[in-house]
Structure formats: C-alpha cells, structure tokens
Give the backbone structure.
Amino acid sequence: MTETVSVTELNTRVKELFSRSEGLNDIWVAGELSNVKRYSSGHYYFTIKDSGSEIRAVMFRSSRSRIDFEPADSLKVQAFGHVDMYVERGSYQFIAETMRVAGTGDLYMQYEKLKKQLEAEGLFDSARKRPLPVYPKVIGVVTSPSGAVIHDIITTTRRRFPVDILLAPAQVQGEGAAVSVVAGIQLLNRVGVDVIIVGRGGGSIEDLWAFNEEPVARAIAASKVPVISSVGHETDFTIADFVADVRAATPTAAAELAVRDRHEVIRQLEDCVLRLNKALTAVSERQWARFRVLDSRLAPKRAQEMVGMLVLHLDELSTRLAAALGNRVGAMHRRFARAEGQLDPAVRTMLVAKRAEAAAASARLEALSPYSVLGRGYSFVAGSDGRAITSVKGLTVGSLVIVRMRDGRAAAEVKGKEEYHD
Amino acid sequence: MTNDDVQQMSFEDSMKALETLVAQLEGGQLDLDQSLQVYERAIALRDHCRKILDESDRKVQTIMATAAGDQRADFKDVDG
C-alpha cells in the first residue's frame, strides 16, 4: 500500500532528514558570494556559488558579530553552518553561522606555524623581556603618520611627562607593510631613542598581517632598545605582541607604559623633601643634645666657646637653608605653592628657635664667666699654680701672686694681710 | 662647594642621586656641616627635577632615511 502524504508532511520529513544528516551539518562550504542583500531585520541573504553550482544562504543578524568583514558580492568565502529546509517553499538553503574570507585559513595556519617556531627559539621567553626605561627622553614610534595611534601617543605623553617623540612613519598594512615597519624599527635603533612603540589600530587579520610576519618579529627581537607593541584591538594578539618586551592593549596604554605620570613623580619629590627636612631636624637635635652634655661637663670657658661655635653654625645653617629655600621658591610651580609652603617653614621655625636658645645659653654662660666681670673693673688673684685664690688664709706675706685683669696680668708680692671677721 | 653640575644631570640620574642623598641624611652618620651640604645638594636636585617636569615644550618630529641621510621634520598632529 503506497503512502499518500500532504506536501507539508513531505517537506517536514525532508527537513528532519536534513537535520539528522551528518554530512549537512557543521560543515564548511567554500564559494563566492553573490546577490548579497542585507535586510532591515539585520539578516543577510545571499547565494554561495562555485563554477558548477550554487546554493541560497542566509546569515542571521545574531551571527553577524562573528565575522569581521562586510559580506559583499564576488567575495570568496568559506561559510560554516548547516543545510536547512524551508518547508513553506519546498526549497533548501545554507544557514551560515560564521564565515571567513578565503585564504584566511591559510593565514591562521601560517600564524600558528610561525608562532610555534619562534616560541621554540625562545623569542617569547619572559627572560628576554627588558625593563622599560623609567624616564625616557625620546620615545620612538613606528606607525602610520595619519592614524589615531600617533595622535593618542602624543596626547597621552603630553599629559603625563615631558618627552620628545620621534616618529618613523610606516606603512602598517598591505603589500610592503612588514618591510616598512622593519625599516622604522631599525632606523630608530640607529638614531638612538630610549624606547620604541610599534603599532597600528584595529582591523581584520589581513589588516594586521604585517605584525604577524617573521621579519617584523625578528626586528623587534633584535632591537637594542625595549619595544612596546600596540597592534589592533585588545583581543588581537599578533606575533609582534609576543616578541615585544611589553604588549599594550591600546596606543594610550602604550604611552602610559612608556612614561610615568608627572603628578606621581612630583609626589615622590615632595616626599623626598619631607624626609630631608625630618632628617636635618634630627641632625640638629642631635647636635644640640651633644652640646648640652658638654655644657654640663666642661669648664665655663670651653663651654662658652662651644656655644659660640654652635651659634655660628646655626646662623650659617639658617642662612644657607633660607638661601636654599629661597632659590627653590623661585623655581616653584604655582600649583604646588601651598603644599610646599607647609613643609619648609617647620624647619625654618625650628632653626630660629634653636638659635635663640643657643644665644640665651651663651648669654647665661657669659654672665657666669669670671672673665666677663673683669671688664667692669674687677680683677682676681691667682697663685703661681694658676689657681684662683679666694681666701687670705692661703696667702703668706712675701709670696708671689698673679693679678688677672681684663686685658692682662701682673705679678705682685704680698706685703701684708688682714683677715675680715664679719 | 656649588651644585651647578646638577643642571647638566639627566632626570633619571637626578632622581637616583636625590634618593641616595635622602637615605644618607636619614642614616644620621653625617655631622652638621656635611648634613647641610647634603641637604643643599638634595634641594638643588629636587629643583632641577621640577624644572624638567615643568617643561611643556617638547619636540615631536618625524624621521626618514633618505639617500641624503636621515631627514627630520617637525610633525604636526591633526588635533595637536
């Protein structure tokens, strides 16, 4: 008994057959695009054909993000997907889930091969990576003179740190790009820069291809100065990125890696000044403490000299410090005037206080010194041993004594003596 | 002793020298006069670094190898 089915049933059975057939699912089909139409829904409808045959195909909007090129007529592609039955029309079509431009597959293979080879040679080893200079004076850049890359690098470095930029204009895609990039790297090495940024903006694998070529990889590896790579978008990894000393996700990031932020550097400088001031204060405190010990131990005359020297020292310290601070104030940038104003007066105040303290101590010692009263008409008497004689009890008539006056001394003979009894 | 030589020093050398002097002064092994010399030199280095940091006029040039040698030219950034 032969079976009679509706058209719908028939087409539904074919659809099921297709969906179960291994040879029609998850396959790559190669051909040329034609009749490409993009609908407002975002879906693409086109024909894939070769010299002998053709098939209707569709790429839904949800799959569009998987490809990095715009489908166009006569483009040779490889489309990945499955064959599906359109039941209502009784026609079948290819549902393209992703596509690649023909030849790209070869590029991927070349990429993988070169990557393996260079990796085996050790060109990607972390031990080969050189540290970037902390304060480069000249940054070399190898990129297109008209692209966003050089603009971003100039803008970013200008914002962060004063540095010269030397651009070796290079062709960054198409025939001859690799040669051009290699020449740029070698030229900058020859004229001497502190670090090199090599890069270009985003694009398809073909656009970025120069940075996957062996000569570029070798030139980066041979560079005498460290190389920062910035090729394509964050998700693109080229061979150049693996060989470079540092890989930056964007040109801005590359510039940020190349130079420090001046505000950060200024903070570090101010921290140094803070530490200097603290250390100098400590030195001065120690000096002062030492003087105090001497003061208590030494004879008044010696102590007085010490005080005198210390006052001199402090005066000098104060003057030189004021000069040092004064010079600096001249060079000070307005923005930081306030912060700096708070730092150094602390030291200045400390010095002024110390000097006053020293002067007072000096005056006190001077008042105590026996020599100071000599100026007021007093004199004192010493024995031949130089010791002061403070009582007539120690004197014998006829002995020799020394009379010490403000500006000299005289030898005298005791002619007689009388002791007071209060 | 003057600190005039500081003017000729690179930013990097100046920063390194400054750090060393700070550490020296903090070490506390110097007498007052030496401390003062170190302090003055450190301040001179700091001033020098700040002067470099405040320089805004930096060169942006292109360089190309030609038959007549390396040719440099000022580069004008589109928005710069």
Residues 4-74 of chain B form one domain. Chain B touches chain A through 47 residues (CB under 8 Å).
